[in-house]
Amino acid sequence: MLPMFLASVDGTIVATALPAIAGDLGQVERVSWIVVSYLIAATIAAPVYGRLGDALGRRRVMFLALALFITASGLCSIAPSILLLTAARVLQGFGGGGLMTLSQALVGEVVPPRERGRYQGYTATVFVAASSFGPVAGGWLTQSMGWQSVFWMSIPLGLIAVLLTFRLKPRPPTLGAFRFDTPGLILFVMTIVPLLLALEEFRKFDPSVLPYALGMLIFSGSCCTVLLRHQVRAPVPLLPINLLRQEAIWRTNLLACCAGATIVSLITFLPIYLEVVRATSPSDTGLRMLPLTAFIAVGAMGTGQVITRTGHSAIVPSLGQPVLAMLLFAFAFLAPSLNLDQLSGLFFCTALMCGTAMPVVQTTVQMLAGPRQLGAASASVQFSRTIGAGLGTALVGAVLFGALAATDPQTAHLFSLMVEEGPKALAGLSADRVSDVKLEVAHAFRAAFIAIAIFPILGAFMAWTMPVRRIESRPDPVE
Q1: If you average pLDDT over every residue of the chain, what do you get?
Q2: Long-range pairs for 25-34 at CB < 8 Å and ≥24 separation?
Q3: Does 93 share its domain with 32?
Q4: H-helix or E-strand containing 59?
Q5: Across the chain, which distance is largest between two alpha carbons, in Å?
Q6: 27: burial class by Cβ within 10 Å (0-12, 13-18, 19+)?
Q7: Which residues 6+ apart lie within 8 Å of 140 measured at CB?
Q8: Could you tell me if 219 and 252 lie in one domain?
Q9: What's 378's domain CATH number?
Q10: Cα(41)–Cα(209) distance, rounded to whole angstroms?
Q11: pLDDT tens by residue, 154-184
């Protein structure tokens, strides 16, 4: 759980320090590279660590991932420029991608299938703790000790994780059968890098970058086609094609994709809604978001308990995801008539339903993969969730700004200023114009939340049609 926490908290804790980093190192236009470079590297690293962990043993590969992450954290803290900091973040991402994948696979290695649901509920608590702890800790550390302290914090936690990893039982490697798919890795990089860069451009909501972003998407899609053809022919493919061909596996991964899109879109756009439409302060926004971030873990732990005690798995998201969609539709249409306390109650119910998917995804994929491919299976889930989160936020952002631009292009421009500058962006406008702007923004958010509701609808369909609906109580066969 500690390596998983390190990988999860990185995005939120570093994001809080970005303004201070830009102020100290300059090159404000490149500060987003600090986040994007880590995301790209971690996404690329996930299937590599899955493959290495299955072949060489997850304990020894975890030491490698921790060593990279700790070393890169130290390099980040002493980086004198944005370019060198970005390079250190790439190295940190190569370590962080392994922390998440290997931690999930290690749970599958030491815990029987039926019990994994309960442990996946525990790991959900790690994600929520990271989401809640990161912004608060990042702001406090940056203000008290400078932005460098955000990276120094990872070093002692990483060293403790190294000591705890020594307690794991060594597993014999399968070196004799190990061959690495280097061409597959190159094609995978050529697919992922332009895809994530395109999604990052879409998030800027700048029409001038659309041709560039679309070009990267086309290039990424072409490389993906070549990659899939190569993986089918490769003797030892980088991606678990034999697993992904199974109906239960690909449906489960699509459920993970929808869950990632739903959760990350909500965490991204709800604070903007509260601050722009409801005029809440940043501190009040954080408090109002607590029911959402905290009770996702409660929903996940409840789902894990159901799996452990009954063995039933797919039934939970089959019921939870449609309820989640209905709650999001209710939010889209009823939010203007609800006060902030009532909205917090709606966040609470939404969070519980958000937690019904991921424990089912991990336990199902790991059970079907078996001991020999636990790493590859865990990496596929991590990859699906990451891509879902990126695609989801990009699509919802496109709907939000598209609705604003269709209503009034000037309002779309004012909304961008409101996000960056707060209420002072409307200073100088007449009272009637301010009222019209807020009403138009509220209507655009209605379209955005309807778009988010589509993700759990798709997730519910995946859960309803999932062939595997129970988790076996017997342990995995020992190699």
Answers
A1: 83
A2: 25/79, 25/80, 25/81, 25/82, 25/85, 26/82, 27/81, 27/82, 30/82, 30/83, 30/86, 31/82, 32/200, 33/82, 33/86, 33/89, 34/82, 34/85, 34/86, 34/89
A3: yes
A4: helix 58-77
A5: 75
A6: middle
A7: none
A8: no
A9: 1.20.1250.20
A10: 23
A11: 899 999 999 999 988 877 665 555 577 888 8
In order of 106, 171, 189, 319, the CA distances from 61 in angstroms are: 11, 11, 21, 38
How many other C-beta atoms can be found within 10 angstroms of the C-beta atom of residue 419?
13
**Same-domain check for residues 167 and 248:** no
Q: For the chain, what's the residue count?
A: 479
3-class secondary-structure state, position 72: helix
Whether residue 302 contacts residue 117, with contact meaning beta carbons closer than 8 Å, is answered with: no
How many CB atoms sit inside 10 A of residue 462's CB? 24
3-class DSSP string for 442-457: HHHHHHHHHHHHHHHH
Residue 209 lies in a domain: yes
Pure H helices in 245-339 = 247-276, 282-310, 315-334
Q: What is the pTM of this model?
A: 0.81
197-237 pLDDT tens trace: 887 777 665 667 778 888 988 999 999 999 988 888 888 78
Residue 257's nearest CA partner among 375, 383, 355, 367 is 383
172 and 275: one domain?
no
Q: Which token pair is 465?
A: 């049609």
One domain for residues 52 and 103? yes
